[in-house]
Specification:
Strands 3-4-2-1-5-6 form a six-stranded parallel β-sheet, sandwiched between helices. It has seven helices and six strands, in the order E-H-H-E-H-E-H-E-H-H-E-E-H. The chain has about 240 residues and is of the alpha/beta class. The protein has one domain (about 5-140, about 175-225): Decaprenyl diphosphate synthase-like (Undecaprenyl pyrophosphate synthetase), CATH 3.40.1180.10. It has helices at about 25-30, 35-55, 75-95, 115-125, 140-155, 165-170, 215-225; strands at about 15-20, 60-65, 100-105, 130-140, 180-185, 200-205.
């Protein structure tokens, strides 16, 4: 089945999010340095953007670098920074992203100036695009996201807040909450990814490592999502 045909057969999520896990294990299985796994994983991110768009899903989020990932060895972190620079340049230089709304979610001030300024520039350039939304979570932590949202509200003079107030001040304020969160590699946890936004998300934990996640795996994931009965706390007659 072609990806473009899925919407005629299956129920699609509006917003699919990926916790991309398994790059290091992918490299280890092949007796390669971890950096090669991250390179392969970054390449897969670009392929996933296209595959998701082909299905007709409107929003995709990728958990690319968490607030905890700074604790990895310096050599590995430095390699990831090089990949971020390369990935950001692809958003500039490839026409396939010209109608995409691209956001980098997280505390970007922790990155070097060139990464920080480039990310801000891309978000400014694409802010009015509405065809397809790509969220790249960089230096993102779900608890930190809630804290920064509350601090924004305090700065606005709020003395009490609503659920809508907090949602409107999260990094994800321009996207609906994810309907479907996929974590590759078989690990069964969210690892500080969108705890507020994932309250009613469907969760899926395929064993495939992220660099190996392909068209067949995406189709299987959508089939699984389509089979779920989403009641949001209600009872269907």
């Amino acid at each position: 089945m072609e990806l473009t045909e899925l919407k005629t057969v299956y129920k699609l999520p509006t917003h699919i999010a990926f916790i991309i896990d398994g790059n290091g294990r992918w490299a280890k299985k092949r007796h390669l340095p971890r950096s090669q796994g991250h390179i392969k994983g970054a390449d897969k991110m670009e392929k996933i953007y296209k595959m998701v768009r082909d299905t007709g899903i409107k929003y995709v989020s990728i958990y690319a670098f968490s607030t905890e990932n700074w604790n990895r060895p310096k050599e590995e972190v430095d390699g990831l920074m090089k990949l971020f620079r390369k990935s950001i340049n692809t958003f500039y230089n490839q026409k396939k992203y010209s109608d995409c709304h691209i956001e980098f979610l997280g505390d970007l001030t922790k990155f070097d100036d060139d990464i920080y300024k480039s990310a801000l520039d891309i978000m400014e350039r694409t802010k009015n695009n509405t065809e397809f939304y790509i969220n790249v979570c960089l230096n993102y932590g779900g608890r930190e996201d809630i804290v920064q949202a509350v601090n924004k509200l305090i700065a606005q003079g709020k003395t009490s807040v609503t659920i809508d107030d907090i949602s409107a001040n999260l990094y994800t304020c321009n996207s609906p909450d994810p309907d479907f969160i996929v974590r590759t590699s078989g690990e069964h946890r969210l690892s500080n990814f969108m705890p507020w936004q994932s309250t009613y998300a469907e969760l899926y934990f395929p064993k495939v490592l992220w660099p190996d996640f392909g068209k067949k795996d995406l189709i299987e994931a959508i089939k699984e999502y389509s089979s779920r009965d989403r009641r949001f706390g209600a009872i269907k007659e």
